[in-house]
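Q: Now give one record:
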Amino acid sequence: MTAGRATHDAKHAARQLLDLGADAAGRRDARERVEAVKAKLVPLARQGDSQAQTLLGAIELELQGNPRGAHPWFEMAAAQHDPAGQRGLGHLYATGLGVPADRDRAVELFTQAAAAGDAYAMYNLASANIQAEGQYPSFDATVTHLRAAANRGIPAAWARLGDLFSADDQDAEALECYVKAAEAGHTGAMNAAARWYRDGTAGQVDLVQATRWFLTMLRHGNGDGIHEIFQFASRMSPEQIREAARLAGDPAAAESFISVLEGRGPRADT
């Protein structure tokens, strides 16, 4: 095996472990894999490979719960202007994990990584600004960062953008963002969209869309919306309920609700 291939394989294995998450990586067999991958990454990192440095930092932080061990690796990678390393180091300073909390330093690092196109850094930068009540970038800049992060595949950015527009009384824009986050699988945004459609917060009441998103929450393992549907489903026709269930990707759910409403079956929320 060539050195280049070995380097590629070590980094790929590290990313696979990070995708598994801390719970899966905590199993005995996975712990052994983590140590084996680290052993391959350390020489690369010490030779100045910024990707290896960042991956080691991520493994220490996310899989082994060791922010102090992550800090020097992220520091090395950030010094080489590695965007993911800058973001990782920024996270430590933003949260005070392994280092004294330093919001200004975190924002500086997130800004550098965001300028290099790192989507999560864009999200983190916008979030830091919201928490600081606009101390850093302007409202427009925060919106720009969140949109960029959202368009790069981070559903939580759409949800955060919805919250931002909601706080600024831009209800139509807020609902649009909640729907985009919901379409991307964000259950909190599904709940927000459902309630906004139910209440007509951004305009007209739309019980079909409200039911759609409450049912979609259920398909994602969150049954909190079932009780909500029963509060207003009597105001809907069977055709509307069927359309909502079709949009939610669960046509069979419609017949269950219709059966209950017609007194032919037990309620699922009791």
User: Anything to note?
Assistant: DSSP finds 15 helices and no strands in the chain. The longest helix spans residues 3-25. The two ends are 62 Å apart (CA to CA).
